[in-house]
Design goal:
alpha/beta, two-stranded antiparallel sheet
Amino acid sequence: MKNILITICARGGSKGIPGKNIKIMNGRPLIAYTIETALKYSKLHNVQIGLSTDSIDIKNTAEEFGIKTDYVRSADLATDSAGKLPVIKDVMLYHEKINNITFDFVIDLDITSPLRTIEDLESALNILIANEEAVNLFSVSKAHRNPYFNMVEEQPGGFYYLVKSGNFLTRQSSPKVYDLNASFYIFKRNFFEMYNSAMTPKSIIYEVPHVCFDLDEPLDFEFLEFLLKNKKLNFEL
């Protein structure tokens, strides 16, 4: 049986949506949706759940919904400039040490992109297991814009041109691209000994087959709450 760690990383500060990790979303703190998924998944596999936060309010809220931890994120990993991978690795090493085990996989669930299902996680993990060369996998959604066809960037001299060059007459004929929806990342254990970026030459994707997006701005939060309140999702969280 595979040893799996689910990480839930929740920094206290948030500029885009203040207090978003525990902001009430359709009657529950946002973090509760991710905790619920993690707990459901833990009943199917040999899973531990690691919460990484620098906020006592987040820690207390997580405990109300079933996740208790003695781990405390260090100050240097709680700054605006701290990357997420060092945060994940630190909490992983903590749980490996206190349990005297080595995890086979680490699944990071992002609180601000909660539109995921157990089926998504099961399918994604199987895809990664089946690919012996791949070191990690991340969730994506079908992109509505395409850098080969309808996205531009500034060129030297101040003029603008397509982000990627290609002779394509329609968006449908251009190479397929995806949006990172940030919902989850799955890492093989050896990834953390080899890379310091989630984008590697041996990364693969799982295309989420339903609506899935990250909450970056207050309007995103309101939109997701509308979907939940009015039962507009065509799947069960």
